[in-house]
Amino acid sequence: MSTEQKNNKDTEEVDLIVFFNYIGDALSRLFRFVGNILKYLFSSIIYIFKVLFKSWKIILSVLIIAIILGYFFDKNRTSTYQTSMLVEPYFDTKYQLVTNIEYFNALIASRNIETLKDIFDIEEDVVKQIVRFEIKPGPETENDRKLQYEDFLKLLDSTRAKEYSYEEFVENRSIYSGKLFNITAYTKKNNIFNKLEDGIVASFTNDFSRKSRQRRDTLLAIQKRNLIVQLKQIDSLQNIYIEVLKDESKKIKSNVDLGGISFSTDRQTTKEYDLFLEEQRIRDQLKAIEEQRIQENEYFDVISGFQKVGNKVSPWFRGYIYLFPILAFFFICIFFFVKQFIKFTLNYEK
């Protein structure tokens, strides 16, 4: 029995030794693999610097030539200018606005000068200076997004509203979600933007927006008439109540003293105050209707228009003075790589 236990113990020890040896071999192979990668990277970096140091005169000369060429190309190329306008569309004219901006860009790309002349009512030489238009959502605060989220939840049923998070709402927003829109015009001249603004402004309206405004005006007129009728009814009730109080005051004394004991017949608060509150509520609604009609009396509001003189567009990554040296260095690296690859291939059999 003891001999069998001893054999089992020896077997377990052998298994542990084999297991630890296996782990040790695996770690050794892993370390060698990582070491080879680091060694290869280090050798590659050293080789690159070696080539650069050996050919630094050629590389420096090519880069200087590329910088000079880039400078002259930048000096001679046509400058681009930009300015922006901020608008707030009403009656769902934002859909027509976005569609028209895309249409304008398509006309510019196809060089359809005549159509652009008719749309913007400008001369041909001005049309040729237009580069493109761009439309983006306007500025908005976190509170604006939260208010839009609350309005959106009101359109959903209670179950779906609980599942739809604020982060999901923000992530799924489109260009049409906001109230403000930023329109940017790019041109080759910096003093023609005022001529373009009228054409963009005229692109807001269509049959749908006109019908939407007519429906809105009709609904507001109906609401206003109903509120005025209610106001007249309340006024009539107030007049009747005042007459009743006058008649009662002539018949009933307010205080009666009997044997030194005072009995008051003052009435409790009546519905007169309730009528007054209802009158104020209706007047507030009439005021809100009138404010809405005045504030949204147009199809849009131009919050800030195009500047008379645009700003020059000069991003550094579009400058040839930066682009040419980068491309030159890239092609130099490709050249040396191909050269060494060909040399290695020709000497491989040797």
Automatic annotation (TrEMBL):
Keywords tagged on the record: Membrane, Transmembrane, Transmembrane helix
Superkingdom, natural source: Bacteria
Transmembrane segments: 30-49, 55-73, 320-342
Protein name in UniProt: Uncharacterized protein
Organism: Aurantibacter aestuarii
